[in-house]
Write a structure and sequence with these properties.
The chain is of the alpha+beta class. Helices cover 27% and strands 18% of the residues. Helix 3 crosses helix 5. The longest helix is centred in the middle third of the chain and has 24 residues. The protein is globular and about 70 Å long.
Amino acid sequence: MDQSINVRKVFNGFLYVTLVIFLVSCNPQGERADRYEADIIIYGGTSAAVIAAVEAVHSGKSVIVVSPDNHLGGLSSSGLGYTDTGDKSTIGGLSRDFYHRIWQYYNDSAAWKWEKHASYGNKGQGTVAMDGENRTMWIFEPHIAEQVFEDYIAENDIVVFRNEWLNREQGVKKRHGYIRSVKTLSGKVFSGKVFIDATYEGDLMAASGVSYHVGREACSVYNEKWNGVQADARHHGHFFKDTIDPYIIPGHPESGLLFGITAEPIAENCSGDQKIQAYCFRLCMSRHAENRVPFPKPENYDSSRYELLIRLFNSGWREWFDKFDAIPNKKTDTNNHGPFSSDFIGMNYDYPEASYERRKEIIKAHEDYQKGMLYFAANDKRVPEEIRTEMSDWGLAMDEFTDNGNWPWQLYIREARRMAGIYVTTENDVLGKQVVPQPVGMGSYTMDSHNVQRYVTSAGFVQNEGDIGVHPEKPYAVSYGSLIPQKTECKNLLVPVCVSSSHIAYGSIRMEPVFMILAQSSTLAACMAIDKNLPVQDIPYAGLREKLITSGQKLQPE
């Protein structure tokens, strides 16, 4: 595969197709609106959005991708290069093709710019980088993932409108239960036969009047064990193992709590709430001098935000570098690790329902927090010398996210809205306690929730809550019913990312390979609905199953 994206080809093809479909009409108010039409309209710029569009072309349907993002691929091209896979045999279709294309790229010695392939080896804790036998690769650099997604777009002549944001208040027009068109804030109107919401937030789903849930359900709602508040769970080690004082002046509650600790008492175990697991940026870092940018100091830097980290270090904790996971060319996918890390715990509760402006504020707050933490660890004299010295060798990778100060474009939205669809996937499905009807893809990863809140225990010490990791004994199926809303709410919408599931089940489903799997299955269902002129709820599953198998999807373990 050519390492460089043929920019002229992409641009010229995009310009040509855009000019062909460009229509201008006048609405009753006399305002001009740009109108576009295709069989399938996909809203989102994620990996799922691209894969859904590719399948639409392969299935002979016209398609338009309406992306609020300028860069395509979501987290897969924005720092999450250390793929959470689970059982790789369950990953088929175009999702597997993506990882095959990654393998093709790195199978060329020219791909190894900052190190030789032999020196990288097959590193990974449970994730094999290169699987030569199956010609796939699961660990990669962000800009290479983006290149693969752009290759998909160019090869299939897919029309993409970038930086187009859905008008969430008045932009969805429905008639007789069908979405007829969606309008963006720029005034563009997109009409289609079937619509796919491939965003991490579920904005099109919500604006279409489809029911959804935000937060954690009580265990009693779906007869689950691991949903809701889980103050006693200690699954990943991302909790305070030592007694650490939470107050600004130790031993003096009247002095107030340290930054990031809530005064709200912990609720009863298994009770539900509207809180969501923490977000962070997955950073691409390097300690290679030729490709390293020193950690910047945020304009509003406040070292007091990291006092709890100092107390953690002083307790003897030394796991700071444990999730600097190596990806090719002497870089990392750096994730949250331990009781105090890159997760900005408790600072995202309003994100799913927030306005675009408020979301920008939340994203900026996460960026400032994480940048400040990196600068603090590399420069503050209170940080243990061995950590500070090693941290000073690290920086942001100079050749990644070059138009954004080497900072990832996409915040890791681990969970936002979740549809309340025809079928709700729960931990009982993930753990194999019941038979899943009408499977359209598979998952296998741990039911993984990051911490949700940081609070003061009854004994007066700081603690985290919400970190869950329960591993299914075998892969499980995801039902078609989890991709579609109630028929009374919308008849031509599919949702492969904000799927219908409980909070804890979503902790397993929410992996990039699974999103791509469900996106392809959604498009195959959309095509059937178009061909048979049926609501997406009424297509015959037997026919869909046949198409899924033909397309290479895995519906049961090998």
